[in-house]
Write a structure and sequence with these properties.
Porin, 16-stranded antiparallel β-barrel, globular, 11% helix, mainly beta, 20 strands, 2 domains, 383 residues, two-stranded antiparallel sheet
Length: 383
């Protein structure tokens, strides 16, 4: 990308020089073309990939390239948890280990944002991919692909409106704690404001994988956020299907956050519903033995800045299901995680981080519990 931009800059500068030599013999129209070319050169010089300035332009469309490169290194103590620190792998004999080291760069991602003024308001686009393909392969996977019209409409794939983004806990590992919705789905969403600090949104969405339904999902949310206090509620209605059995899929989330002092953050999320497992981190079964599987979960997080460069935090999450979900030889109804982490901002773009992870899950038929630990280190370069 940088090499191509430099080549384009050199070509434009050369063209500017040649045009300048002939400009003395040209009329006002040619001079205007020369001024336009000079403006394009200045735009190329000002463009800073990844700076988020929108200085790179094609016609009247502004473009931003963004993303990061992230390298993760981890050590699992009792059970191999994979690149995602998957707590549902705990207890399975096939994952047992006396100590296992792993590394991945699959969380790295790249995205493109566009913005074009129009008669109906600014039209924006987003296309984002990462390397988390299925089967542990480092191949491109679509994360977001959407169109935004003005401040109100979103069309395409984005986080589900049911998910509380502003109070989502911060972790080094990819998923975050159990006990919270996490899904990206194609949708049509309408958003508007009530006053200066309150927004509400409604969406029609595709159902997530694991729900196995062709029916659309309806969601609604309302959020108050003044920078110090956050309060949010959302609701969801859809269908889940297993074979010939179809059940209602319903749920709600309640979220709150507060910054009680400088650099401090405390936030909680609660979720409850029926057949809602596919939306949650542990992805429990929506239907078991022909019955809707009720679930509730919650997360709690506390974070604190330590000066300008350090940030530390702890997050706890838990999910509880009425009916067991099979993970192979075992099945679970209860699962919990703890994340304790620290982030060091070496430069504006480069961050180093470390995390201790603890996970525990039960085996529903026997009542036994299993646990495992992970130590994870990471380096992330934003652009």
């Amino acid at each position: 990308m940088i090499a191509k931009r430099k080549t384009a800059l050199l070509l434009a500068v050369s063209a500017l020089g040649m045009s300048g030599t002939a400009a003395f013999a040209q009329d006002a129209q040619t001079q205007a073309e020369l001024d336009a070319l000079r403006a394009r050169v200045e735009a190329l010089e000002a463009g800073k990939p990844g700076a988020g300035t929108g200085d790179l332009r094609i016609g009247n469309t502004a473009l931003d390239v963004y993303g990061y490169v992230k390298a993760d290194f981890f050590f699992d103590t009792d059970f191999e948890l994979g690149d995602l620190a998957d707590a549902t792998r705990i207890g399975e004999p096939a994952n047992a280990t006396s100590g296992s080291f792993g590394a991945t760069v699959r969380q790295s991602r790249i995205g493109l944002r566009t913005n074009t003024p129009s008669a109906i308001g600014d039209i924006s686009g987003q296309l984002e991919v990462d390397l988390f393909a299925s089967g542990g392969n480092a191949e491109f996977r679509l994360r977001h692909a959407n169109i935004r019209i003005g401040d109100n409409w979103l069309i395409g794939q984005y986080w589900t409106n049911f998910q509380p983004l502003d109070t989502y806990p911060t972790t080094v590992e990819f998923n975050g704690p159990v006990g919270i919705p996490f899904a990206r789905v194609p949708q049509v969403r309408y958003t508007n404001t009530l006053g200066s600090n309150t927004t509400f949104a409604f969406s029609i969405e595709e159902n997530v994988g694991g729900s196995n339904s062709d029916d659309p999902v309806l969601t609604g949310s309302i959020e108050y956020n003044n920078g110090t206090y956050i309060g949010r509620a959302s609701a969801l209605y859809g269908k889940a299907q297993s074979g010939a059995v179809e059940v209602d899929q319903t749920g709600f989330t309640l979220s709150a956050g507060i910054r009680p002092w400088e650099g401090g953050l405390f936030q909680v999320n609660y979720v409850d519903g029926e057949a809602l497992g596919p939306y949650l981190i542990a992805a429990g079964d929506a239907i078991v033995n022909g019955q809707a599987n009720d679930v509730d979960g919650f997360t709690v997080e506390f974070r604190q800045d330590l000066g300008a460069k350090w940030n530390v935090g702890i997050a706890y999450g838990q999910e509880n299901y009425d009916l067991p979900t099979s993970t192979g030889t075992l099945s679970f109804t209860e699962i919990e995680t703890i994340h304790v982490n620290a982030f060091y901002k070496a430069t504006d773009n480069l961050t180093f981080s470390a995390e201790y992870f603890y996970g525990e899950r039960n085996d529903a038929p026997t009542g036994r519990t299993f646990d495992s630990d992970r130590i994870q280190l990471a380096a992330q370069l934003n652009f």
